[in-house]
Write a structure and sequence with these properties.
Layout: H1 16-27, H2 30-36, H3 41-49, H4 68-81, H5 83-102, H6 107-119, E1 123-127, E2 145-148, E3 152-162, E4 168-177, E5 184-190, E6 196-199, E7 213-223, E8 227-229, H7 250-272, H8 286-314, H9 324-346, H10 348-351, H11 357-364, H12 374-386
Parallel strand pairs: 1-4, 2-4
Antiparallel strand pairs: 2-3, 3-7, 4-5, 5-8, 6-7
Helix pairs in contact: 1-3, 1-4, 4-5, 4-7, 5-7, 7-8, 7-9, 7-11, 8-9, 9-11
């Protein structure tokens, strides 16, 4: 990819004020998309205009090349506005981040992705889960198969939980080869390639606008360089999602944003709610003040763990790396606790769809599905400390 072929990508303004403005713009349509389940086009467009969807494109590809700390700041801001938009952005940013580190995409395919990204939102996601297998982090190999052809590869299989749906510009599909010595890897698949069929299966409690549908690949023709092998370690394939790395903190970051949105909604409601018997806003009562303090405490815990883990890694400290999966668990627990505290304190109003709290609660609970999940993280940590 030559310098003259690089498209012009927007340089994002990552000041607190600019990110807050994007949060507000994205939040304006969050309820609408939550109810319709449609792709949150307005929110995605706002993130694109702000240059946030390409913030992690490496400088050598003409991008801003922002680091992990600014990436989680972006995702907290988007998650505070609409976590469905944030999830789509997180997956896209992680793809560009991976390319910046490893440079494993075929040159022509990545050049095309960058061109599309300059022209408009170009979403990418790793398509990995399968209806029968479930989450790959739990072990096993995919049934989705890449068959060698004279021209390259033919991809066939069915995937589940393919976030982004038909809005994806590219799929990164986890599959096995049909070679005598089977290999495991990912195939770079254009979203508009012939042979792709979407099955509208997503009818979820939270992140309803994320369009996490099933997708079928039926003899999708791909070039020979579309396959990227995942190397074995000591002769054994280990799924990279089974353990947390510093680059995977984007997902918990967006749910910290959800907790922040719940805090703002709580403050607004408490200041506006004036019961007749009380004669003043409930924000002036010690009970509500203590609840607000508890919400803030949980968010402070989540943000400190999130940023602290990345700051330590940035300065070269590796002592905490074996605990990253546990830190993700604790961030998730704190984000959920913050939203649950707000809902429990307000009672019926917080469960009404006339208020945003029930949406925030539904959304924040989705943090638990991102691998490694809590039981797997705790089990691995327990085995690690008991074996030392």
């Amino acid at each position: 990819m030559t310098a003259t072929a690089l498209p012009t990508l927007r340089q994002p303004d990552l000041s607190d004020q600019a990110l807050a403005a994007v949060t507000a713009e994205v939040a304006a349509t969050a309820e609408e998309y939550d109810r319709s389940g449609a792709i949150p086009a307005a929110g995605i467009a706002a993130a694109h205009r702000a240059g946030l969807l390409t913030a992690t494109v490496a400088e050598r590809y003409g991008g801003p090349g922002v680091g992990l700390l600014d990436t989680v700041r972006i995702l907290v801001a988007l998650g505070e506005g609409d976590p469905s938009v944030a999830l789509l952005a997180a997956n896209t940013l992680a793809t560009h981040q991976g390319q910046a580190t490893a440079g494993h995409w075929p040159q022509d395919a990545y050049a095309d992705l960058l061109r599309r990204s300059a022209e408009g939102p170009a979403l990418v996601n790793a398509i990995r889960a399968e209806p029968e297998l479930g989450a790959p982090a739990r072990g096993g190999l995919p049934a989705t198969t890449a068959r060698r052809t004279a021209a390259g590869w033919s991809l066939s299989g069915r995937k589940a939980y393919a976030t982004g749906g038909a809005a994806l510009a590219y799929h990164v599909v986890w599959a096995v080869t049909d070679e005598p010595e089977q290999r495991v890897g990912h195939l770079i698949v254009p979203g508009d390639a012939p042979g792709i069929t979407w099955v509208d299966t997503w009818d979820h409690l939270g992140l309803r606008a994320s369009n996490t549908h099933d997708v079928i690949y039926d003899d999708v023709a791909l070039s020979v360089d579309a396959f990227i092998e995942i190397p074995r370690v000591d002769g054994v394939y280990r799924d990279p999602a089974a353990a947390t790395g510093v680059a995977s903190f984007g997902h918990p970051a967006l749910y910290v944003g959800v907790a922040r949105a719940a805090r703002s909604a709580f403050v607004r409601y408490a200041r506006e709610r004036v019961p007749t018997a009380l004669g003043r806003p409930i924000a002036e009562t010690e009970r509500i003040q203590a609840v607000a303090g508890e919400i803030d405490a949980q968010i402070a815990l989540a943000e400190t763990l999130l940023h602290g883990a990345l700051l330590r890694a940035e300065r070269g400290d590796t002592a905490h790396l074996p605990q990253l999966s546990l830190l993700k668990v604790q961030i998730a627990r704190a984000a959920i606790a913050a939203v649950e505290t707000a809902v429990a304190a307000l009672g019926n109003p917080a469960l009404s769809r006339h208020q945003p709290f029930e949406r925030h609660l539904r959304d924040v609970l989705c943090v638990r599905v991102h691998p490694p999940q809590e039981d797997a993280a705790l089990l691995a940590a327990g085995r690690r400390i008991l074996s030392t």
